């Protein structure tokens, strides 16, 4: 996809990536500010734990910074970044499933991270308390708790499609780019995920 076919936001992202590659770390700070809420939102909806989601978001931006040299700026930066965040969330869920251990480490109290050996950093601002998080993130009632439990029971790849499609508003074509799968596969996984959710919620709601 040539850069001319990118959206206005995509062209702005490409400019910031180019400036970051030229040594301007403020450009990467701008990318962090632009996408930190969405990256955190995907991670939170995937792992259902605020502290773990913050760690995953931090990890996502570190990986993005360190891998920026390999990013094809003719392609959408947002899809590439969400691919890193989604894969990091899936890896986290798989590690959790294997270990079943409760994490005890906390998030850096400063709310900052340092990326890469160059010590180039960008601020990651943690979201506010649960009462300030949008309703799709803040699970505040029994019905939402039941739905979240059913969602947590899905295979990781199905859960990722549900989060990206229904909660983040991505199209199946965008999900395909994020997850590295054909559009039709993303759609099939979404349909299968909804079927499994309906089965899990049958008789409960």
Report on the structure:
With 205 residues, the protein is mostly helical. The protein has 8 helices and 2 strands, in the order H-H-H-H-E-E-H-H-H-H. It has 2 domains: 1-132, Orthogonal Bundle (Rna Polymerase Sigma Factor, Chain: A); 139-205, Arc Repressor Mutant, subunit A. The protein has a two-stranded antiparallel ribbon. A hairpin with a 4-residue loop joins strand 1 and strand 2. Helix 1 (8-21) crosses helix 2 (25-47), helix 3 (50-66) packs across helix 4 (77-99) and helix 7 (172-179) packs across helix 8. The longest helix is centred in the N-terminal third of the chain and has 23 residues, at 25-47. It is globular, with a radius of gyration of 18 Å. Residues 101-121 and 129-133 have low confidence and may be disordered.
* CATH classification class of the largest domain: Mainly Alpha
Query: Unreliable runs, pLDDT <50, ≥5 residues?
Result: 101-121, 129-133
**Average residue-wise pLDDT:** 81
Distance between the termini: 45 Å
How many discrete domains? 2
Summarize the structure.
This protein has 205 residues and is mainly alpha-helical. The protein has eight helices and two strands.
